[in-house]
Design goal:
Elements lengths: L6 E5 L3 E2 L7 E2 L1 H9 L8 E5 L7 H14 L2 E5 L10 H6 L3 E4 L4 H11 L1 H11 L2 E5 L1 H4 L4 E4 L7 E3 L9 E3 L8 H10 L6 E4 L3 E6 L2 E7 L6 E7 L2 E7 L1 E3 L5
Parallel strand pairs: 1-7, 4-5, 4-6, 6-7, 8-10, 10-11, 13-16
Antiparallel strand pairs: 1-12, 2-3, 8-9, 11-14, 12-13, 14-15
Length: 245
């Protein structure tokens, strides 16, 4: 079972602290699974930790969180070599691809080196839900802001561009994010785009924004445009997901 249209859920959230484990699947991650339309069996979630260097400890914790949530988690690793023989068949067999945070610059370079950019495009077009947080959000867009190069944020402009927009993440929690995103859209370094506060996701059907959702009340999503060098920010209506804090 796959989504009935190419679907991306680009977020600044997805995991919640848990009592017995470091974290659990939050409403955003559960919503990504719901979007795939799976029923009658455990959903298959491909975890991609490239942006964090394929850390085995985090991968194990994510897999355990998936088990508790009733999902079959299958990691896709590139370090020190791909962990599967046929990455295309592996990805296309999943219901959801969840990409974790870290260095979006390194992620994009490695994905292109291994041909994952085209594999993920095929999966997206086939109805596998593409989703993720932070670097796992920016990557599907034309670009955004990143700390991949150092503590002073810089633009990244070579995203996969499945979605023809800029993407701003952690909009409310990191002081450099909003002003830099505004400036980059205003001066044309990035196209118009969308941004999310922590715990908010953007749902795209095809290449069109279908809505914004949140797993924490009061958090927002934004449309950022520019005309004649003047930036405009519009807060979007954000739907509260079931299980929201």
């Amino acid at each position: 079972m796959t989504a009935d249209a190419p679907t991306i859920l680009a977020t600044s959230g997805g995991l919640f602290p848990a009592q017995r484990n470091p974290f659990e699947f939050g409403p955003l991650l559960s919503y990504a699974i719901e979007l795939s339309g799976v029923s009658g069996r455990a959903p298959r979630v491909c975890f991609v930790g490239t942006a964090g260097g394929d850390q085995e400890s985090f991968e194990a914790r994510f897999t355990e969180a998936g088990r508790i949530a009733g999902a079959d988690v299958a990691p896709l690793r590139l370090f020190t070599m791909p962990n599967v023989d046929d990455m295309a068949s592996f990805v296309l067999d999943q219901d959801v691809v969840w990409v974790s945070g870290g260095s979006v610059a390194n992620l994009l370079a490695l994905w292109r080196l291994h041909g994952l950019d085209e594999i993920f495009r095929r999966a997206w077009q086939a109805g596998v839900v593409l989703a993720g947080v932070s670097a796992g959000s920016v990557c599907w867009h034309t670009g955004g802001t990143t700390d991949a190069f150092g503590p002073d944020l810089r633009p990244v402009t070579n995203g996969l561009a499945f979605l023809p927009y800029a993407n701003g993440v952690h909009y409310d929690s990191e002081a450099q994010r909003r002003p830099l995103f505004h400036r980059l859209v205003a001066d044309g370094t990035l196209p118009a785009g969308y941004a999310t506060d922590d715990h908010v996701g953007l749902l795209y059907r095809g290449t069109e924004l279908a809505g914004a959702v949140t797993e924490v009340r009061g958090q927002g999503a934004y449309r950022v445009t520019a005309e004649d060098g003047e930036v405009r920010e519009e807060r979007l209506t954000t739907r509260v997901l079931p299980g929201t804090a």
